[in-house]
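In practice, a research group might receive sequence data for several interacting partners and want a quick structural hypothesis before committing to experiments. The following worked case mirrors that situation: the sequences arrive first, and a predicted assembly follows.
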Amino acid sequence: MNDKVNPKEIMDFLKSKMGARFKMWLKICAHCGLCSDSCHYYLANDKDPEMIPARKVRHLQEILKKKGKVDRDFLEKVYQTVYHECNMCRRCTLYCPFGIDIALMIGTLRSLLLSQGIAPEGLMAAIESYKEFGNQMSVTKEDWVDTVEWCEEEMAEELLGLKIPIDKKGARIMYTVNAREAKFYPQDIMEVAKIFHVAGEDWTLPSEDGWDDTNLAMFATDTKTAKQIVENTFRRAEELGVQQVAVTE
Amino acid sequence: MDFYSFVEGPLLWIALLTFFFGTLLRVVLFLVVSRQTDKIIYEHFSWRYALTTIGRWLLPLNKDVAKNPVFTVLAYIFHICLIVVPIWYSSHITLWEESRLEWSWTPMPDRLADWMTLILLAIAIFLLLRRIVSADIRLLSTFSDYFLLIVTALPFLTGYFLTHGTLDHIGFLADNMILIHMLAGELMLILIPFTKLSHFVLFFFSRASAGIEFGRRGYSM
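A structural hypothesis for the assembly, expressed as C-alpha coordinates:
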Protein backbone atom coordinates (compact mmCIF):
# COMPACT_ATOMS: atom_id res chain seq x y z
CA MET A 1 0.00 0.00 0.00
CA ASN A 2 1.64 3.27 -0.96
CA ASP A 3 1.66 6.23 1.38
CA LYS A 4 0.71 8.85 -1.16
CA VAL A 5 -2.80 10.08 -1.33
CA ASN A 6 -3.88 11.95 -4.41
CA PRO A 7 -5.86 15.02 -3.29
CA LYS A 8 -7.43 15.52 -6.71
CA GLU A 9 -8.65 11.93 -6.75
CA ILE A 10 -10.20 12.40 -3.32
CA MET A 11 -11.89 15.67 -4.21
CA ASP A 12 -13.18 14.36 -7.54
CA PHE A 13 -14.63 11.37 -5.77
CA LEU A 14 -16.28 13.48 -3.06
CA LYS A 15 -17.61 15.98 -5.58
CA SER A 16 -19.43 13.19 -7.35
CA LYS A 17 -21.04 12.17 -4.05
CA MET A 18 -21.65 15.48 -2.30
CA GLY A 19 -25.15 16.57 -3.11
CA ALA A 20 -27.04 19.68 -2.10
CA ARG A 21 -28.20 18.00 1.09
CA PHE A 22 -24.66 17.20 2.25
CA LYS A 23 -23.60 20.80 1.85
CA MET A 24 -26.70 22.03 3.63
CA TRP A 25 -26.21 19.59 6.51
CA LEU A 26 -22.58 20.53 7.03
CA LYS A 27 -23.58 24.19 6.96
CA ILE A 28 -26.54 24.14 9.33
CA CYS A 29 -25.52 21.60 11.98
CA ALA A 30 -25.88 23.74 15.10
CA HIS A 31 -23.68 21.45 17.22
CA CYS A 32 -26.50 21.27 19.73
CA GLY A 33 -25.62 17.76 20.85
CA LEU A 34 -29.15 16.36 20.71
CA CYS A 35 -27.83 13.41 18.71
CA SER A 36 -25.45 12.33 21.52
CA ASP A 37 -27.56 10.02 23.59
CA SER A 38 -29.39 8.59 20.60
CA CYS A 39 -26.19 6.77 19.66
CA HIS A 40 -25.56 3.29 21.07
CA TYR A 41 -21.80 3.68 20.57
CA TYR A 42 -21.93 6.81 22.72
CA LEU A 43 -23.95 5.09 25.43
CA ALA A 44 -21.93 1.86 25.34
CA ASN A 45 -18.62 3.78 25.68
CA ASP A 46 -19.49 5.60 28.91
CA LYS A 47 -20.74 8.60 26.98
CA ASP A 48 -17.42 9.22 25.29
CA PRO A 49 -17.81 12.61 23.57
CA GLU A 50 -15.82 11.30 20.59
CA MET A 51 -18.78 9.00 19.89
CA ILE A 52 -21.28 11.83 19.36
CA PRO A 53 -22.71 11.38 15.87
CA ALA A 54 -22.22 15.05 14.94
CA ARG A 55 -18.57 14.65 15.96
CA LYS A 56 -18.04 11.70 13.64
CA VAL A 57 -18.59 13.68 10.47
CA ARG A 58 -15.72 16.03 11.35
CA HIS A 59 -13.54 13.94 9.04
CA LEU A 60 -15.65 14.90 6.08
CA GLN A 61 -15.44 18.56 7.07
CA GLU A 62 -11.70 18.25 7.46
CA ILE A 63 -11.10 16.55 4.11
CA LEU A 64 -13.15 19.23 2.36
CA LYS A 65 -11.38 22.01 4.24
CA LYS A 66 -7.96 20.61 3.34
CA LYS A 67 -9.11 20.12 -0.24
CA GLY A 68 -8.22 16.44 -0.10
CA LYS A 69 -4.66 17.04 1.09
CA VAL A 70 -4.62 14.30 3.71
CA ASP A 71 -2.29 11.37 4.31
CA ARG A 72 -2.68 7.64 4.86
CA ASP A 73 -2.53 8.00 8.64
CA PHE A 74 -5.44 10.38 8.49
CA LEU A 75 -7.44 7.96 6.34
CA GLU A 76 -6.68 5.19 8.85
CA LYS A 77 -8.20 7.38 11.56
CA VAL A 78 -11.24 7.91 9.39
CA TYR A 79 -11.40 4.14 8.93
CA GLN A 80 -11.47 3.64 12.69
CA THR A 81 -14.40 6.03 13.02
CA VAL A 82 -16.53 4.99 10.09
CA TYR A 83 -16.16 1.23 10.58
CA HIS A 84 -15.73 0.87 14.34
CA GLU A 85 -17.69 3.79 15.79
CA CYS A 86 -20.77 3.89 13.57
CA ASN A 87 -22.84 1.17 11.99
CA MET A 88 -24.99 3.60 10.02
CA CYS A 89 -28.21 2.79 11.90
CA ARG A 90 -29.58 6.32 11.36
CA ARG A 91 -31.05 6.62 14.83
CA CYS A 92 -29.35 10.00 15.35
CA THR A 93 -31.23 11.34 12.33
CA LEU A 94 -34.51 10.60 14.11
CA TYR A 95 -33.41 12.88 16.96
CA CYS A 96 -31.82 15.64 14.91
CA PRO A 97 -34.08 18.70 14.68
CA PHE A 98 -32.83 19.20 11.13
CA GLY A 99 -32.96 15.52 10.20
CA ILE A 100 -29.29 15.50 9.28
CA ASP A 101 -28.41 12.09 7.86
CA ILE A 102 -25.12 11.32 9.58
CA ALA A 103 -25.20 7.72 8.36
CA LEU A 104 -25.30 8.81 4.74
CA MET A 105 -22.19 10.91 5.30
CA ILE A 106 -20.44 8.05 7.11
CA GLY A 107 -21.37 5.83 4.16
CA THR A 108 -19.82 8.31 1.78
CA LEU A 109 -16.62 8.26 3.83
CA ARG A 110 -16.66 4.46 3.62
CA SER A 111 -16.96 4.59 -0.13
CA LEU A 112 -14.19 7.19 -0.27
CA LEU A 113 -11.95 4.87 1.74
CA LEU A 114 -12.81 1.95 -0.53
CA SER A 115 -11.81 4.05 -3.54
CA GLN A 116 -8.44 4.44 -1.79
CA GLY A 117 -8.19 0.72 -1.16
CA ILE A 118 -9.11 0.93 2.51
CA ALA A 119 -11.84 -1.38 3.85
CA PRO A 120 -12.02 -4.47 6.05
CA GLU A 121 -10.17 -7.26 4.23
CA GLY A 122 -13.07 -9.70 4.22
CA LEU A 123 -15.37 -7.07 2.85
CA MET A 124 -12.98 -6.18 0.03
CA ALA A 125 -12.57 -9.86 -0.86
CA ALA A 126 -16.35 -10.29 -0.94
CA ILE A 127 -16.78 -7.25 -3.18
CA GLU A 128 -14.17 -8.58 -5.61
CA SER A 129 -15.97 -11.89 -5.59
CA TYR A 130 -19.31 -10.27 -6.42
CA LYS A 131 -17.72 -8.50 -9.34
CA GLU A 132 -16.08 -11.64 -10.69
CA PHE A 133 -18.52 -14.40 -9.79
CA GLY A 134 -21.76 -12.59 -8.99
CA ASN A 135 -21.73 -13.97 -5.44
CA GLN A 136 -19.70 -13.30 -2.31
CA MET A 137 -18.13 -16.77 -2.03
CA SER A 138 -16.51 -17.07 -5.47
CA VAL A 139 -18.76 -19.98 -6.38
CA THR A 140 -18.69 -20.71 -10.11
CA LYS A 141 -21.86 -21.44 -12.03
CA GLU A 142 -20.79 -25.10 -12.45
CA ASP A 143 -20.16 -25.51 -8.73
CA TRP A 144 -23.48 -23.88 -7.90
CA VAL A 145 -25.51 -26.09 -10.25
CA ASP A 146 -23.52 -29.14 -9.11
CA THR A 147 -24.27 -28.34 -5.48
CA VAL A 148 -27.97 -27.94 -6.14
CA GLU A 149 -28.13 -31.20 -8.11
CA TRP A 150 -26.25 -33.00 -5.39
CA CYS A 151 -28.69 -31.60 -2.82
CA GLU A 152 -31.56 -32.92 -4.92
CA GLU A 153 -30.06 -36.43 -5.11
CA GLU A 154 -29.38 -36.53 -1.40
CA MET A 155 -32.90 -35.43 -0.53
CA ALA A 156 -34.60 -37.66 -3.04
CA GLU A 157 -33.49 -40.63 -0.94
CA GLU A 158 -35.40 -39.23 1.98
CA LEU A 159 -38.42 -37.75 0.21
CA LEU A 160 -39.47 -39.65 -2.83
CA GLY A 161 -39.99 -37.52 -5.91
CA LEU A 162 -38.35 -34.44 -4.46
CA LYS A 163 -37.08 -32.09 -7.15
CA ILE A 164 -35.11 -28.87 -7.00
CA PRO A 165 -36.18 -27.14 -10.19
CA ILE A 166 -33.43 -25.06 -11.79
CA ASP A 167 -34.39 -22.21 -14.13
CA LYS A 168 -38.03 -23.31 -14.30
CA LYS A 169 -39.85 -20.71 -16.34
CA GLY A 170 -43.15 -19.46 -14.97
CA ALA A 171 -42.61 -20.87 -11.46
CA ARG A 172 -44.42 -18.95 -8.76
CA ILE A 173 -41.41 -18.38 -6.50
CA MET A 174 -37.78 -17.83 -7.32
CA TYR A 175 -35.73 -18.78 -4.29
CA THR A 176 -32.41 -17.12 -3.50
CA VAL A 177 -29.79 -18.11 -0.92
CA ASN A 178 -26.84 -16.77 0.97
CA ALA A 179 -23.75 -17.87 -1.00
CA ARG A 180 -22.39 -19.37 2.22
CA GLU A 181 -25.09 -22.02 1.96
CA ALA A 182 -23.81 -23.16 -1.39
CA LYS A 183 -20.24 -23.14 -0.13
CA PHE A 184 -20.49 -24.40 3.45
CA TYR A 185 -24.04 -25.26 4.42
CA PRO A 186 -25.82 -27.09 1.58
CA GLN A 187 -28.00 -28.77 4.21
CA ASP A 188 -29.83 -25.44 4.50
CA ILE A 189 -30.79 -25.67 0.84
CA MET A 190 -31.94 -29.26 1.43
CA GLU A 191 -34.13 -28.25 4.36
CA VAL A 192 -35.79 -25.56 2.30
CA ALA A 193 -36.28 -27.97 -0.61
CA LYS A 194 -37.99 -30.33 1.81
CA ILE A 195 -40.40 -27.60 2.95
CA PHE A 196 -41.20 -26.46 -0.58
CA HIS A 197 -41.73 -30.09 -1.67
CA VAL A 198 -44.06 -30.98 1.19
CA ALA A 199 -45.93 -27.70 0.82
CA GLY A 200 -46.38 -28.47 -2.87
CA GLU A 201 -44.94 -25.09 -3.80
CA ASP A 202 -44.11 -24.18 -7.39
CA TRP A 203 -40.56 -22.88 -7.02
CA THR A 204 -37.21 -22.67 -8.74
CA LEU A 205 -33.58 -21.67 -8.29
CA PRO A 206 -31.80 -19.61 -10.95
CA SER A 207 -28.54 -21.00 -12.31
CA GLU A 208 -27.16 -17.64 -13.37
CA ASP A 209 -25.90 -14.72 -11.22
CA GLY A 210 -28.55 -13.38 -8.91
CA TRP A 211 -29.03 -16.47 -6.74
CA ASP A 212 -26.92 -14.95 -3.94
CA ASP A 213 -29.20 -12.57 -2.05
CA THR A 214 -26.55 -11.08 0.22
CA ASN A 215 -25.30 -7.61 -0.59
CA LEU A 216 -22.10 -6.96 1.31
CA ALA A 217 -21.09 -4.21 -1.11
CA MET A 218 -23.66 -2.06 0.65
CA PHE A 219 -21.59 -2.14 3.84
CA ALA A 220 -18.76 -0.34 2.08
CA THR A 221 -21.29 1.88 0.30
CA ASP A 222 -19.99 0.53 -3.00
CA THR A 223 -23.23 1.56 -4.66
CA LYS A 224 -22.17 0.45 -8.12
CA THR A 225 -21.56 -3.15 -7.10
CA ALA A 226 -24.53 -3.12 -4.72
CA LYS A 227 -26.77 -2.05 -7.58
CA GLN A 228 -25.34 -4.74 -9.86
CA ILE A 229 -26.09 -7.42 -7.27
CA VAL A 230 -29.72 -6.39 -6.94
CA GLU A 231 -30.11 -6.01 -10.68
CA ASN A 232 -28.87 -9.57 -11.20
CA THR A 233 -31.64 -10.93 -9.01
CA PHE A 234 -34.30 -8.80 -10.68
CA ARG A 235 -33.10 -9.80 -14.14
CA ARG A 236 -33.33 -13.51 -13.26
CA ALA A 237 -36.81 -13.02 -11.83
CA GLU A 238 -37.94 -11.30 -15.00
CA GLU A 239 -36.36 -13.89 -17.29
CA LEU A 240 -38.02 -16.72 -15.41
CA GLY A 241 -41.29 -14.83 -15.18
CA VAL A 242 -41.80 -15.63 -11.50
CA GLN A 243 -44.33 -13.84 -9.31
CA GLN A 244 -42.21 -13.61 -6.19
CA VAL A 245 -38.60 -13.70 -5.09
CA ALA A 246 -38.04 -15.45 -1.78
CA VAL A 247 -34.98 -14.71 0.32
CA THR A 248 -33.24 -17.18 2.59
CA GLU A 249 -33.59 -16.74 6.31
CA MET B 1 -22.73 61.70 5.93
CA ASP B 2 -21.62 60.89 9.47
CA PHE B 3 -21.24 57.38 10.77
CA TYR B 4 -24.59 57.44 12.53
CA SER B 5 -26.51 58.33 9.37
CA PHE B 6 -24.59 55.65 7.50
CA VAL B 7 -25.54 52.96 10.02
CA GLU B 8 -29.11 54.18 10.16
CA GLY B 9 -29.50 54.45 6.39
CA PRO B 10 -27.33 52.72 3.79
CA LEU B 11 -25.92 50.06 6.11
CA LEU B 12 -29.39 49.07 7.22
CA TRP B 13 -30.39 48.65 3.59
CA ILE B 14 -27.24 46.67 2.88
CA ALA B 15 -27.98 44.44 5.86
CA LEU B 16 -31.62 43.90 4.93
CA LEU B 17 -30.85 43.22 1.28
CA THR B 18 -27.96 40.87 2.15
CA PHE B 19 -30.24 39.04 4.50
CA PHE B 20 -33.08 38.83 2.00
CA PHE B 21 -31.19 38.01 -1.19
CA GLY B 22 -28.58 35.90 0.57
CA THR B 23 -31.32 33.75 2.03
CA LEU B 24 -33.12 33.60 -1.28
CA LEU B 25 -29.91 32.54 -2.99
CA ARG B 26 -29.37 29.75 -0.45
CA VAL B 27 -32.86 28.41 -1.10
CA VAL B 28 -32.62 28.70 -4.88
CA LEU B 29 -29.17 27.07 -4.87
CA PHE B 30 -30.47 24.19 -2.82
CA LEU B 31 -33.45 23.68 -5.10
CA VAL B 32 -31.41 23.90 -8.30
CA VAL B 33 -28.50 21.74 -7.17
CA SER B 34 -30.63 19.13 -5.42
CA ARG B 35 -32.57 18.56 -8.65
CA GLN B 36 -29.35 17.15 -10.07
CA THR B 37 -27.71 15.59 -7.04
CA ASP B 38 -30.51 14.55 -4.71
CA LYS B 39 -33.09 13.11 -7.07
CA ILE B 40 -34.38 10.84 -4.33
CA ILE B 41 -36.21 13.80 -2.76
CA TYR B 42 -38.13 14.50 -5.95
CA GLU B 43 -38.70 10.89 -6.97
CA HIS B 44 -40.39 10.20 -3.67
CA PHE B 45 -41.71 13.68 -2.99
CA SER B 46 -44.75 13.81 -0.75
CA TRP B 47 -46.43 16.91 0.64
CA ARG B 48 -47.92 14.79 3.34
CA TYR B 49 -44.59 13.65 4.79
CA ALA B 50 -42.90 16.98 4.19
CA LEU B 51 -45.57 19.00 5.99
CA THR B 52 -46.10 16.45 8.76
CA THR B 53 -42.47 16.40 9.71
CA ILE B 54 -42.12 20.20 9.53
CA GLY B 55 -45.19 20.56 11.73
CA ARG B 56 -43.96 18.06 14.28
CA TRP B 57 -40.67 19.89 14.70
CA LEU B 58 -42.04 23.42 14.60
CA LEU B 59 -44.38 22.38 17.40
CA PRO B 60 -43.07 20.35 20.32
CA LEU B 61 -44.52 17.11 18.96
CA ASN B 62 -41.28 15.26 18.24
CA LYS B 63 -39.02 12.65 19.79
CA ASP B 64 -36.59 15.13 21.33
CA VAL B 65 -39.19 16.63 23.64
CA ALA B 66 -39.52 13.40 25.58
CA LYS B 67 -35.80 12.58 25.45
CA ASN B 68 -34.37 15.98 26.37
CA PRO B 69 -37.31 17.95 27.77
CA VAL B 70 -35.36 20.74 29.46
CA PHE B 71 -33.12 21.62 26.57
CA THR B 72 -35.87 21.24 24.00
CA VAL B 73 -38.36 23.44 25.82
CA LEU B 74 -35.74 26.13 26.39
CA ALA B 75 -34.77 25.98 22.73
CA TYR B 76 -38.40 26.50 21.71
CA ILE B 77 -38.82 29.47 24.05
CA PHE B 78 -35.54 30.93 22.81
CA HIS B 79 -36.69 30.80 19.20
CA ILE B 80 -40.12 32.24 19.97
CA CYS B 81 -38.58 35.26 21.74
CA LEU B 82 -36.03 35.62 18.96
CA ILE B 83 -38.74 35.98 16.33
CA VAL B 84 -41.51 37.76 18.22
CA VAL B 85 -39.66 40.61 19.96
CA PRO B 86 -37.92 42.22 16.97
CA ILE B 87 -41.06 42.07 14.85
CA TRP B 88 -43.71 43.19 17.35
CA TYR B 89 -41.76 45.51 19.64
CA SER B 90 -43.56 48.89 19.58
CA SER B 91 -40.54 51.12 18.84
CA HIS B 92 -39.54 48.91 15.92
CA ILE B 93 -43.02 49.23 14.45
CA THR B 94 -42.80 53.00 14.86
CA LEU B 95 -39.64 52.92 12.74
CA TRP B 96 -41.43 50.94 10.04
CA GLU B 97 -44.26 53.49 10.12
CA GLU B 98 -41.80 56.34 9.73
CA SER B 99 -39.91 54.59 6.92
CA ARG B 100 -40.71 55.09 3.26
CA LEU B 101 -42.58 51.78 3.29
CA GLU B 102 -45.01 53.12 5.95
CA TRP B 103 -45.84 49.61 7.10
CA SER B 104 -47.72 49.28 10.35
CA TRP B 105 -49.07 46.54 12.57
CA THR B 106 -50.24 46.07 16.15
CA PRO B 107 -47.38 46.07 18.67
CA MET B 108 -46.95 43.76 21.64
CA PRO B 109 -47.06 45.26 25.16
CA ASP B 110 -43.67 46.72 26.12
CA ARG B 111 -43.63 44.87 29.42
CA LEU B 112 -43.98 41.59 27.56
CA ALA B 113 -41.18 42.57 25.19
CA ASP B 114 -39.02 43.31 28.24
CA TRP B 115 -39.71 39.94 29.76
CA MET B 116 -39.19 38.04 26.55
CA THR B 117 -35.89 39.83 26.04
CA LEU B 118 -34.72 38.88 29.53
CA ILE B 119 -35.84 35.29 29.01
CA LEU B 120 -33.98 35.11 25.72
CA LEU B 121 -30.84 36.48 27.34
CA ALA B 122 -31.11 34.05 30.22
CA ILE B 123 -31.43 31.13 27.82
CA ALA B 124 -28.52 32.48 25.76
CA ILE B 125 -26.39 32.43 28.90
CA PHE B 126 -27.56 28.89 29.59
CA LEU B 127 -26.61 27.85 26.05
CA LEU B 128 -23.22 29.49 26.41
CA LEU B 129 -22.54 27.83 29.77
CA ARG B 130 -23.70 24.52 28.36
CA ARG B 131 -21.14 24.82 25.58
CA ILE B 132 -18.42 25.64 28.06
CA VAL B 133 -19.30 23.29 30.91
CA SER B 134 -20.48 20.14 29.13
CA ALA B 135 -17.52 18.14 27.85
CA ASP B 136 -19.71 16.84 25.04
CA ILE B 137 -20.88 20.14 23.68
CA ARG B 138 -17.47 21.73 24.24
CA LEU B 139 -15.92 19.14 21.95
CA LEU B 140 -18.50 19.81 19.25
CA SER B 141 -18.25 23.58 19.52
CA THR B 142 -16.25 25.61 17.07
CA PHE B 143 -15.35 29.27 17.26
CA SER B 144 -18.34 30.15 15.12
CA ASP B 145 -20.71 28.42 17.56
CA TYR B 146 -19.66 30.77 20.37
CA PHE B 147 -19.42 33.76 18.10
CA LEU B 148 -22.86 33.31 16.56
CA LEU B 149 -24.47 32.80 19.95
CA ILE B 150 -23.09 36.17 21.00
CA VAL B 151 -24.09 37.75 17.69
CA THR B 152 -27.62 36.46 18.26
CA ALA B 153 -27.86 37.69 21.84
CA LEU B 154 -26.21 41.06 21.29
CA PRO B 155 -29.13 42.88 19.62
CA PHE B 156 -31.32 41.85 22.55
CA LEU B 157 -28.80 42.83 25.18
CA THR B 158 -28.14 46.23 23.60
CA GLY B 159 -31.85 46.71 22.99
CA TYR B 160 -32.52 46.17 26.67
CA PHE B 161 -29.74 48.58 27.67
CA LEU B 162 -31.09 51.10 25.20
CA THR B 163 -34.68 51.06 26.41
CA HIS B 164 -33.76 50.97 30.11
CA GLY B 165 -30.70 53.20 30.10
CA THR B 166 -28.94 50.52 32.16
CA LEU B 167 -25.44 51.66 31.24
CA ASP B 168 -26.17 55.34 30.82
CA HIS B 169 -23.80 56.27 33.64
CA ILE B 170 -21.00 55.44 31.21
CA GLY B 171 -20.94 58.49 28.97
CA PHE B 172 -19.79 56.82 25.77
CA LEU B 173 -22.40 54.08 25.98
CA ALA B 174 -25.17 56.53 26.88
CA ASP B 175 -24.45 58.46 23.70
CA ASN B 176 -23.89 55.52 21.40
CA MET B 177 -26.11 52.67 22.60
CA ILE B 178 -28.55 53.13 19.76
CA LEU B 179 -25.66 52.97 17.30
CA ILE B 180 -24.31 49.81 18.93
CA HIS B 181 -27.79 48.31 18.92
CA MET B 182 -28.25 48.98 15.20
CA LEU B 183 -24.80 47.62 14.38
CA ALA B 184 -25.50 44.47 16.39
CA GLY B 185 -28.75 43.86 14.51
CA GLU B 186 -27.16 44.56 11.15
CA LEU B 187 -24.26 42.22 11.89
CA MET B 188 -26.69 39.43 12.65
CA LEU B 189 -28.74 40.04 9.51
CA ILE B 190 -25.65 40.03 7.33
CA LEU B 191 -24.26 36.84 8.87
CA ILE B 192 -27.48 34.81 8.64
CA PRO B 193 -27.19 33.64 5.02
CA PHE B 194 -23.52 32.68 5.33
CA THR B 195 -23.53 30.75 8.58
CA LYS B 196 -25.42 28.05 10.43
CA LEU B 197 -27.99 30.74 11.23
CA SER B 198 -29.32 30.06 7.74
CA HIS B 199 -31.07 27.12 9.37
CA PHE B 200 -33.95 29.54 9.96
CA VAL B 201 -34.99 28.79 6.38
CA LEU B 202 -32.97 25.67 5.45
CA PHE B 203 -34.60 23.90 8.38
CA PHE B 204 -37.71 23.52 6.25
CA PHE B 205 -35.86 21.90 3.37
CA SER B 206 -33.70 19.70 5.53
CA ARG B 207 -36.66 18.60 7.61
CA ALA B 208 -38.80 17.91 4.56
CA SER B 209 -36.09 15.78 2.92
CA ALA B 210 -35.75 13.73 6.08
CA GLY B 211 -39.51 13.36 6.36
CA ILE B 212 -39.78 12.12 2.79
CA GLU B 213 -37.07 9.51 3.37
CA PHE B 214 -38.38 8.29 6.69
CA GLY B 215 -42.10 8.71 6.16
CA ARG B 216 -42.39 6.31 3.27
CA ARG B 217 -40.55 3.67 5.26
CA GLY B 218 -42.95 4.10 8.13
CA TYR B 219 -40.28 5.37 10.53
CA SER B 220 -40.74 8.16 13.02
CA MET B 221 -40.54 11.54 11.33
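Before designing any experiment, note the following. Chain B has one domain: 3-215. The two ends of chain B are 54 Å apart (CA to CA).
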